[in-house]
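Researcher: Here's a chain I'd like modeled. Treat it as a single chain, no partners, no ligands.
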Amino acid sequence: MTKLYQRKIVLLGDPGVGKTSLVQRYIYDRFHRDYMTTLGLNFYVRTFEYPDAEVKLMIWDIAGQKSRRKIGLRYLQGASGALLTYDLTKPETFNNLSGWYEDLRTANNQKDVPVILVGTKLDLAQTKQLPLSFNLKTLGDTPAAKANLIFTSAKTDTNVDAAFNLIIQQIVSGVIPIPDISPKIIEKISTKILFFVKKGDAWSKVALNHIEKVAKKFALEVETIDAETDPQIVDAYGVTAYPTIIAGGRHLVGIVQIAHLESILHQMLEKSA
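Model: Modeled as a single isolated chain. Structure tokens:
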């Protein structure tokens, strides 16, 4: 019997940093230059199906105006995770994340809610040739200072899915069990994993560690393809983001999707059985 879980994600950050653009790109895959300022909150729902489980995500896009902070505290209650967003072209918006994180803890009885730090408007920062600033010292000795940090652009759809997937991965871990892979499965599967990377990409190094563990468990061969060294192979497979792996004809893009590699291979084996 499929189990249903409901989890709440909140988007926090100063007004104008691009929270609504971020979630609109994630939910509807669209971008508008001029969004009206959020008053109160916008509310979105997205459901994911896993083996034997269904996770319903409630995404709350909360207003950033200081005058609404007290109202916002009520909206933060019961959050399972949060995206702490700031504008990469305005370093002061990063400095204000500590206040947003404290609001999150206050609303949840000082509980350390999982968070991801999300820099927005990457395209604009790169156009202006601005340094991608972040000052973790402003977050003090808090879990937020140790959280994953990712740079995004809703306009160019850069790392938007990855940002949400990072927090989703934290939320569903412990809810979705890791499938038990029996020794007989290793004998049945014979597939090569194509691993596409870009030189110097830190996420690719993280992904490779996971891929190597899974490949060893399934007795798979991993072929690494560098975008700069073999651009023709990259184009042939239609790869446009890194890291990406192709396993059994399926493209898994970004560190979080790759984290589901073992589960996906397990599903492939069940279908072929």
